[in-house]
Design a protein that fits this description.
Organism: Rhinolophus ferrumequinum
InterPro entries: Dynamin_N, Nuclear_GTPase_SLIP-GC, P-loop_NTPase
Protein name: Nuclear GTPase, germinal center associated
GO molecular function, one term: GTPase activity
Oligomer: single chain
Distance between the termini: 49 Å
Length: 764
């Protein structure tokens, strides 16, 4: 039976520290080892060393923090320098060990996303596999954890979120007695109308589609809805949880009357989180996300759909071999993924071609070589060594024609492991280095009798910093300047092509038949309609696409990581950082730091810590910048969408189209595209101001800390020399851990080269 939870934090039961302290430590060590089961021995060794480094660093920081708190606990006023230290230490102590790596499996219904996840986690039928008229109905996240059982949390729409959708569904189904024959026929065949009826009947029963909004508010849903809006399922075995989970995340378009009580609340489900216990195949810290390809009619679910895509650092575009060979679906999904790279955190895209077992074996092997040619030729973001994976989940289980390796499922697992290992290495290196810098400063504070004079003579550095900040502002302007010309060119293209684009969006092959209520749904959602069976409709994105066609290469270049270019933003920030660090070294040598590198190291590392946080700030802001064009157009067109949504009666579809066309014409004439340009440029300016303000404030605080003495900034603190010495050893050991990892990997590669090749199964 499903459990419901409110996720309210509970206080732990009181326990005797002497009885439980040591067993808890041992259990944590055991859990830590269990988390690495998905890795081969060489990678396990590296992860354990990095984990040990991080754990010991956190312990040193915690001990230092406690000593500082104790040394100022009874003071009436705490010096600014000590406040700075305490806040920085607390921030580092509370910093998460590792943010999850989200790998989005992005594809249309029936592409094989669920089958692929099942193969990767080695559970053949764990997630429901799409059959005829059956599909995964919501976003499903799968991760491994330290739990002992298989667990799923089903998150439902809040009461207010459902009321908003219910209001739109009833508006969509509203009609007057004036409907003519054409409109009745369209009503009967309309996809949006069918889905609206389906949702209401599943939740409220037969005849619900005939009731108005107020009547449905008073109606009692057929299924039981927990007050927490969260349903928790648990099971000892994967198969047991799969049976419990199946009716929540799999939906049938027909014969709904016979569905279970669980299926009766399907329209309320927002997303599902599944946790596997200590997987030997998927490491903890990786989240596989099954993402439907089109979004959702509900505003909150559709917003979650976009945000989920944008937070994925990796996107696998899933297309079955028949669609890749004969259709444009995979290219549409690739284009949506490329947009995620432009606006979100995605750094890596791959096309995963599924169901290759449908091909004759020689054709399958040939297809691996030719799929690349079917990708958009101008997608620079797709330049990667492993761009295309051709997999067969079915053949992975049967291995009648292919070996396990040839199905490429193990290759995807290897990619996941290496991605996590690399992220852990970079995170621990940065964490230990930043902690070492703080301990350098703390130790200096504790030695007031040995305070070096060089800290008191840094006025020249202030002027240098102000000059460099001005140069940074100019460099940022230079980065953003190249966007202007393609932006203006794109606007010219949009002005000449918007009527043709809009006309294509408003025309269907069968005329208005089957489109009346879909168009109404588009208007109710301000130009956007996401169906689980039709391609996503977004009039705002379509109208602005000529602009994005022009700016995308330049926009991507501004925010691109990796190879530095003149137009890339981060290399200029890195250059600013290096110039400050070089100036620090120059001042240090001139003032006698040649024989005392600790103080120099602190200032250099603190600059890295201050400027290192800018990249995440920039990544968060770039989505708002990128979407500012479509957001601006959507806001300008909102009145005409609202007017069109109210149309009913005879020839309603044509009248709605006419209102939309006239509304767009009017807004374009009044400067809609030019306003969109201004708003994007304003967003760029806000990003520039945010960067410079953060740099100015943080560097000023650091210089004040490093140069002031007269206001009681320094005081005698508790002795932290032992913590400093331990931190110094940990910092030195970073290189040893990295060297050990390289050595082990080299030995493993050598042994693999020397070992006999694996023989595949006999071919018939």
């Amino acid at each position: 039976m499903a459990e419901t939870e409110d996720f309210v934090g509970q206080e732990p039961h009181p326990a005797d520290d002497d009885l439980f302290k040591e067993p808890m430590k041992k259990r944590r060590r055991s859990d830590r080892d269990q988390r690495f089961r998905a890795f081969p021995s060489v990678e396990q060794s590296a992860l354990k060393e990095y984990e040990k480094l991080e754990s010991r660093t956190r312990r040193v920081l915690s001990n230092t923090y406690q000593k500082l708190i104790q040394s100022v606990f009874l003071d009436d006023s705490i010096p600014n320098g000590v406040k700075y230290l305490i806040n920085r230490l607390l921030t580092l102590i509370e910093k998460p060990s590792l943010d999850p790596i989200y790998i989005g499996l992005f594809g249309s219904t029936g592409a094989g996303k669920s089958s692929l996840i099942n193969a990767i986690i080695q559970q053949a039928m764990f997630l429901p596999v799409s059959g005829e008229s059956i599909c995964t109905s919501c976003i499903v996240q799968v991760r491994s954890g330290c739990c002992e059982q298989y667990e799923a949390k089903i998150h439902l729409l809040s009461d207010q979120e459902w009321k908003e959708e219910l209001k739109n569904l009833t508006k969509l189904l509203h009609r007057t007695e004036e409907l003519g024959g054409e409109e009745v026929d369209a009503w009967d065949r309309d996809d949006a109308m069918e889905e609206a009826i389906w949702k209401l009947q599943i939740l409220y029963g037969n005849g619900a589609e005939k009731k108005n909004y107020e009547e449905l508010l008073r109606a009692k849903p057929k299924g039981k809805i927990p007050t927490s809006r969260i349903i928790t399922l648990k099971a000892e075995e994967a198969g047991e949880l799969s049976v419990k989970l199946d009716p929540y995340i799999r939906t049938k378009r027909r014969d709904w009357q016979g569905e279970s009580a669980e299926t009766q609340i399907w329209p309320l489900i927002k997303h599902v989180e599944v946790t596997l216990p200590k997987s030997e195949l998927i490491p903890e810290g990786v989240v596989l996300v099954d993402i439907p390809g089109t979004g959702d009619f509900n505003s909150k679910r559709d917003e979650m759909w976009k945000k989920t895509i944008d937070k994925c650092s990796v996107i696998w575009v899933i297309s079955d071999i028949e669609r890749v060979s004969g259709g444009r679906t995979h290219e549409d999904l690739l284009n949506e993924s490329i947009k995620a790279c432009q606006r979100g955190f995605c750094r890596d895209i791959a096309l995963v071609v599924t169901k290759t077992d449908k091909l004759y074996l020689p054709e399958y092997l040939r297809e691996r070589k030719v799929v690349n040619r079917k990708l958009p030729a101008d997608c620079k973001v797709l330049e990667a060594s492993n761009l295309v994976y051709t997999v067969s989940a079915q053949e992975y289980w049967q291995q009648a024609l292919l070996t396990e390796e040839e199905t490429e499922i193990p290759k995807l697992r290897e990619y996941i492991r290496k991605r996590l290992l690399d992220k852990k290495r970079r995170m621990v290196t940065k964490y230990v280095t930043e902690a070492f810098g703080l301990l350098l400063l703390t130790d200096s504070f504790s030695c007031t009798d040995n305070l070096p004079n060089e800290y008191l003579h840094m006025s020249g550095l202030r002027g240098f910093v102000e000059e460099k900040i001005q140069l940074l502002e100019k460099a940022i302007d230079q980065c953003f300047a190249p966007i202007l010309q393609p932006l203006q060119e794109g606007i010219r293209n949009a002005r000449t092509s918007y009527r043709r684009i809009l006309g294509a969006c408003l025309v269907r092959s069968r005329g208005n038949q089957g489109f009346h209520q879909t168009l109404k749904a588009v208007c109710l959602k301000n130009g956007i309609y996401a169906s689980r069976t039709l391609a996503r409709i977004d009039l705002n994105a379509a109208i602005t696409q000529p602009i994005y066609d022009q700016i995308d290469p330049v926009f991507g270049g501004i925010f691109r990581a990796g190879t530095p270019t003149n137009s890339a933003l981060m290399p200029h920030i890195d250059a600013f950082k290096h110039s400050l660090q070089e100036k620090m070294m120059e001042i240090g040598i001139r003032n006698g730091w040649k024989h005392d590198s600790y103080k120099k190291s602190f200032l250099i590392q603190e600059i890295s810590a201050i400027l290192g946080g800018l990249e995440e700030h920039i990544l968060r802001k770039k989505r708002k910048i990128y979407e500012s064009l479509t957001t601006s157009v959507q806001n300008d067109l909102k009145p005409c969408y609202e007017e069109a949504a109210q149309i009913t009666g005879k020839k309603a579809c044509e009248r709605m189209k006419d209102i939309i066309r006239r509304g767009v014409d009017r807004q374009v004439a009044e400067g809609m595209f030019e306003r969109a340009q201004e708003r994007m440029q304003h967003q760029f300016q806000q990003l520039k101001n945010g960067i410079t303000e953060k740099v100015k404030g943080s560097i000023a605080t650091m210089l004040t800390l490093a140069s002031s003495q007269g206001d009681g900034l320094y005081k005698e603190l508790a002795d932290v020399k032992s913590e400093y010495k331990e931190m110094e050893k940990l910092h030195r050991s970073l290189r040893e851990v990295a060297e050990n990892a390289v050595l082990r990997q080299g030995m493993q590669d050598f042994l693999l080269r020397m070992s006999p090749s694996k023989a595949g199964p006999p071919r018939t």
